[in-house]
Amino acid sequence: MNTTIWALMLSAISISFIHTATGPDHYLPFIVLSKSKKWSRSRTIFLTIACGFGHVLSSLVIGAIGVFLGWQLNQFAWFQDIRGNISGWALLIFGVAYLIYGLVQAARNKPHKHFDVMGEDVYVYEHNHSEMVMPQSRIKVTPFVLFMIFVMGPSEPLTPLLFYSGLNRSITEILALVVPFTITTVATMLGMVLLGRYGYSTLFNTEKLERYMGVISGAVVTVCGIGMVFLGW
């Protein structure tokens, strides 16, 4: 495999792992519900994998828009004449923009999902650290609610990587992004859930990192863009 394929694969793996591991909402509700509702190991694994694939699907639907736009743009003859490093520059510009966006969101204390454990039940709600949430604003978490939460929460940084591959009209590059992203996301979710289910949840303290997920993901895309533009990846 050439350097570009490796760079895209490592970027996809990094983004999916960071996005999953730094968000307690990706594994905490499964751990709590599995223990409180006495789910079997097989049921816990099945629901985690189902929600993981739902999460990946929503990310790929958004990413497919990037692929389509890049693929269509590459069909114009005038674009073929000026393409050069334009795809790499587009990736770099998006990475820097997403990095700045992440810094702004972290500074503004953007509302985020939070889970409360009350007895044997788990409730989800959005809040920031300076506001009080009323009980009626909480939604009881069920397997269906969990699935919908993941379907409606895509990983945006995957989109510019797929746009880059669309500009290059490269099926190989698209697969090099989609396959590692899918495997890493589902495997990370499942690994965190199983570790937590069997008593190792104290090893994780990722809630503070969740606030800076956009910053870290933007930095990964930026590094990839720098490599494409200046290092000949």
Shape: elongated
Number of H/I helices: 10
* Computed Rg: 19 Å
What is the count of distinct domains? 1
Structural class: mainly alpha
Query: Order of strands side by side in the largest beta sheet?
Result: 1-2-3
Unreliably modeled segments: none
Largest sheet: 3 strands, antiparallel
- Annotation, overall tally of beta strands: 3
Give the % helix: 55-70%
SSE string, helix = H, strand = E? Answer: HHHHHEEEHHHHH
The whole-number mean of residue pLDDT values reads 78
Transmembrane segments: 45-71, 86-104, 144-163, 175-200, 212-231
Organism: Chryseobacterium polytrichastri
Protein name: Sulfite exporter TauE/SafE
Keywords: Membrane, Transmembrane, Transmembrane helix
Characterization of this structure:
By secondary structure, the protein is mainly alpha-helical. It has 10 helices and 3 strands. The chain has helices spanning 3-21, 28-36, 41-73, 77-82, 86-108, 143-151, 158-167, 171-197, 207-210, 213-230, and strands at residues 112-118, 121-127, 139-140. It has a 3-stranded antiparallel sheet. The mean pLDDT is 78. This is Sulfite exporter TauE/SafE.
Secondary structure elements and their pairing?
Elements lengths: L2 H19 L6 H9 L4 H33 L3 H6 L3 H23 L3 E7 L2 E7 L11 E2 L2 H9 L6 H10 L3 H27 L9 H4 L2 H18 L3
Antiparallel strand pairs: 1-2, 2-3
Helix pairs in contact: 1-8, 1-10, 2-8, 3-6, 3-7, 3-8, 5-7, 5-10, 7-8
In brief:
Keywords: Membrane, Transmembrane, Transmembrane helix. The protein has 233 residues and is mainly alpha-helical.
